[in-house]
């Protein structure tokens, strides 16, 4: 996920990333700093994450 976040931030200029996650994987994403937003787990990307 770190590499996906880096690519989104540095190569695509994104400020937020969203992933589709099943109910069983949401705790995994929460541990990585993601929050539930509708059906997606989202995370704001910082300049040096």
From TrEMBL:
GO terms for cellular component: cytoplasm; elongator holoenzyme complex; nucleus. The keyword S-adenosyl-L-methionine applies. SUPFAM superfamilies: Acyl-CoA N-acyltransferases (Nat). InterPro entries: Acyl_CoA_acyltransferase, ELP3. One of its GO terms (biological process) is tRNA wobble base 5-methoxycarbonylmethyl-2-thiouridinylation. Signal peptide: none annotated. Keywords: 4Fe-4S, Iron, Iron-sulfur, Metal-binding, S-adenosyl-L-methionine. GO terms for molecular function: 4 iron, 4 sulfur cluster binding; metal ion binding. This is N-acetyltransferase domain-containing protein. It comes from Echinostoma caproni.
């Amino acid at each position: 996920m770190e590499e996906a976040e880096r690519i989104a931030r540095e190569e695509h200029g994104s400020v937020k990333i969203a992933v589709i996650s099943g109910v069983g994987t949401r705790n995994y994403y929460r541990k990585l700093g993601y929050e539930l937003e509708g059906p997606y787990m989202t995370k704001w990307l910082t300049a040096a994450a």
